[in-house]
Automatic annotation (TrEMBL):
Keywords: Kinase, Transferase
The protein, known as: Protein-arginine kinase
EC number from the UniProt entry: 2.7.14.1
Molecular-function GO terms, alphabetical: protein arginine kinase activity
């Protein structure tokens, strides 16, 4: 299973390097600037970011930090942190603010 993933990543890097690079940086840009982000979109963009870290496309953020953001952006975690029972839309705004503020504290660099 691990070997299959390595082969898949190598194929991605060889055959789709430009698209992969753009996807990783586009995901970072959205997360660093969006004002409203759903749980699904956050998970998708953070997954792209994590792939970028794992493949050496982006530096300065660790997979641990990305995993922490994935956890902190979950609906129950946001409600617990805010000490309120927020609506889904309010959570989307809070999630985006949390992600933006976290990414501001991290010096992200290109490969």
């Amino acid at each position: 299973m691990v070997e299959q993933e390595r082969q898949c990543r190598k194929r991605l890097q060889n055959d789709y390097a430009g698209e992969l690079y753009d996807s990783v940086w586009r995901s970072y840009g959205i997360l660093a600037n969006a004002r409203k982000v759903s749980t699904e979109e956050m998970m998708d963009k953070l997954s792209h970011l994590r792939l970028g870290v794992d493949m050496g496309i982006i530096r300065g953020i660790s997979t641990w930090q990305i995993n922490e953001l994935m956890l902190a952006g979950q609906p129950n975690f946001i409600n617990e942190n805010s000490k309120k029972n927020l609506s889904p839309e309010q959570r989307d705004w809070e999630r985006a603010a949390l992600t933006r503020n976290t990414l501001k504290t991290i010096k992200i660099e290109e490969e």
